[in-house]
Amino acid sequence: LKVVSGHDEL
Amino acid sequence: MNIFRLAGDMTHLLSIVVLLLKIRTTKSCAGISLKTQELYVIVFITRYLDLFTRYVSFYNTAMKLVFIGTSVAIVWYMRLHKVVKQTYSRDEDTFKHYLLIPPCFILALLIPLEFTVTEILWSFSIYLEAVAILPQLLLLQRSSNIDNLTGSYVFLLGAYRALYIVNWVYRFFTETHKIRWIPWISGLVQTALYADFFYYYIKSWKNHEKLRLPA
């Protein structure tokens, strides 16, 4: 499991 | 991009179209919270600062510009348009919205993904969006006469958040189990705030009655 940001969403 | 995310974005876009349609055709913003709309301007501007630093897709860039532009336009109509501004439900729109900003900012300082200006502002915008609907929900509770377009606007806005949750569940299982805590938890809170509204909206729709929210 990897924590990522959600910058690809609006 | 999956079908749920697209449906969520389109619902969000449609909610804005419905709101602008109400304002432009009826020349009225009665029942619409200026406080909520101002918070959305802050949300979109702080979140989409990455327009200058990060390119995801033409779709994302276009949508970001549309969200910033329409939110500014709505506030412009409500504050400055000589006919529309007179219909603003000023006396009922009393939520102290500026009080929401410092806690969201402190939370963003405490829990950003990375300690950089754009990440902190991005987290801030996610937290602020989660609670930005509160002045609007309070105004609806106080309105004795909620027109159909206003009801539809808030319903579509809530539906957009609910669809994003389905999108996240879908992404979790299709994209090698990536975790996005900040938008997930904020999104759940945001959607939960609509629960009461959804209940009365669907009830009034089923019974063919006018929408009313108990205070």
TrEMBL record, chain B:
One of its GO terms (biological process) is protein retention in ER lumen. Belongs to the ERD2 family. It is a multi-pass membrane protein. It is found in: Endoplasmic reticulum membrane. The chain crosses the membrane at residues 55-77, 98-115, 121-140, 152-170, 182-202. This is ER lumen protein-retaining receptor. GO terms for molecular function: ER retention sequence binding. One of its GO terms (cellular component) is endoplasmic reticulum membrane. InterPro entries: ER_ret_rcpt. PANTHER family: ER LUMEN PROTEIN RETAINING RECEPTOR. It comes from the Eukaryota. PROSITE patterns: ER_LUMEN_RECEPTOR_1, ER_LUMEN_RECEPTOR_2. It holds the Pfam family ER_lumen_recept. Keywords: Endoplasmic reticulum, ER-Golgi transport, Membrane, Protein transport, Receptor, Transmembrane, Transmembrane helix, Transport.
